[in-house]
Design brief:
The protein is of the alpha+beta class. It has helices at residues 31-52, 73-87, 92-99, 103-110, 118-128; strands at residues 2-4, 6-10, 13-17, 25-28, 68-70, 130-134, 142-147. The protein is elongated.
């Protein structure tokens, strides 16, 4: 999951803000510092949002100029899972019951508080009509969800 940062030079240095994430911005003295600080600020802000409660995960629409800042896997999965669940009009309890994993598993995944093992994510993704995203560096762990064709046997 990627968000684009708008980088601007100001009177006191550099500023980065994320048009898709209201309230998330950071300032730095040099151009060299700003992307690293923006990456950390975005991660901290999104982590706070997913833990603050439902309905706070932002949608990504801005496609203007600026560096693409990638969100870590557990956080990306949390945001995508909450978006998919709310788009499906399901509560965490309903999704957990349908997936056979319990609402506490859904809640922990949506808050990025637990490792997203495929054993937990596969049944949830199936209920939502999605597929887990995995990376070769993390076999057995989901780092996101994607829409698309169902896996054979689903």
């Amino acid at each position: 999951m990627v968000y684009v940062a708008k980088i601007m030079r100001g009177a006191k240095g550099w500023r980065a803000e994320f048009p898709d994430v209201r309230g998330c911005s950071v300032e730095a003295r040099t151009e060299a510092e700003i992307v690293a600080l923006a990456t950390r600020a975005l991660s901290d802000f999104l982590r706070w949002q997913v833990r603050a409660g439902p309905g706070l995960a932002p949608h990504r629409h801005y496609r203007g100029p600026g560096p693409a800042i990638e969100v870590e896997g557990a956080l990306a999965l949390a945001i995508q899972l909450r978006e998919a669940r709310t788009d499906s009009c399901l509560s965490t309890r309903e999704l957990g019951e349908r997936a056979g994993v319990g609402s506490h598993v859904v809640e922990q995944l949506e808050a990025a508080l637990t490792v997203a093992t495929l054993a937990c994510v596969l049944p949830i993704a199936k209920v939502l009509g999605m597929r887990p995203v995995i990376e070769p560096e993390r076999p057995g762990e989901a780092v996101g969800l994607t829409k698309g064709k169902r896996w054979p046997g689903w």
